[in-house]
Amino acid sequence: MTGPVEFLTGAALGTRVVVRTRIAGGYTDALGYLRSCDSANCTVETKRGTVQLALAEVVAAKEVPPAPAPRPRRHVGD
């Protein structure tokens, strides 16, 4: 079993991932596509924009399946 940093540094760019990092007062998650990774940082493109994460703060990371297709909108009165 590999650790989260080893997973991120070995994952193919474009892999959909979730990465948990330490922040003041707790943890936060970034869910999106791995865009870059080096020995100190990784970049994840999320729905809200691109975030750069310090690998020293990463506590968990894994690959996740593709997002589900959008559901069709329901029309009121149908």
Automatic annotation (TrEMBL):
Residues 12-62 form the Histone acetyltransferase Rv0428c-like SH3 domain. It comes from the Bacteria. It holds the Pfam family SH3_Rv0428c. This is Ferrous iron transport protein A.
